[in-house]
Design a protein that fits this description.
By secondary structure, this protein is mainly α. The protein has ten helices and four strands. It is globular.
Length: about 190
């Protein structure tokens, strides 16, 4: 599942230090998709109290709201296929320019491993830019992690499966603590 973000939203490289990704996803993806699928009335009920969330919200706060939204979605929409479609179409973000590069690479090579290598190169480049310009909370240790581990955000194919690992959400804090419980919370 892929959601394409236009260049107008994020510039030619698909990154922005000014965007709040939580608000963007809620407003531009989840909310609009709900509107299209179930209409304004149900969207308003499902999206109840979302406006206080941001990138700075605590993970527990985001999880609590999302759990409530999923419960409201479950009880508001009887059509299971429609519910699944709403969630599938809102799953992740991939910018138009990046999506286009990956698609071109696959069309050119017909090799998923080459696409994954290109995706890793792009991921490193984006995280380097984030580190240099001070957004996405990417510290030097996180940048090294992304550079040295193609599993991070890009994926590695083993047989017929692609394995992928995400960057910790609060990577600076994650890298500064040795407490495993705190690390899980920050991931």
């Amino acid at each position: 599942m892929v959601i394409i973000i236009s260049e107008e939203e994020f510039g030619e490289e698909g990154v922005s230090k000014d965007k709040d990704f939580i608000k963007m996803w809620l407003e531009d993806r989840f909310s609009k998709h709900l509107d299209e699928e179930v209409g304004e009335k149900l969207r308003t009920e499902i999206m109840d109290e979302w406006s206080h969330l941001s990138n700075k919200s605590l993970p527990e706060e985001k999880a609590r709201w999302l759990k409530g939204a999923m419960e409201r979605l479950e009880t508001s929409i009887e059509d299971h296929i429609k519910k699944k479609g709403i969630l599938n179409d809102c799953g992740c973000l991939l910018t138009g320019p990046i999506f286009n590069q990956l698609t071109e690479k696959f069309n050119e090579t017909k090799d998923i491993d080459e696409v994954l290598k290109l995706n890793h190169t792009i991921t490193v480049k984006l995280h380097k830019k984030a580190h240099e310009e001070g957004f996405w909370n990417v510290d030097a240790k996180t940048l090294e992690l992304v550079k040295n581990n193609p599993l991070i955000e890009s994926g590695v194919r083993k047989g017929s499966k692609i394995y992928i690992q995400k960057v910790p959400h609060s990577s600076t804090e994650y890298n500064q603590t040795n407490d495993e419980k705190e690390k899980r919370k920050l991931y």
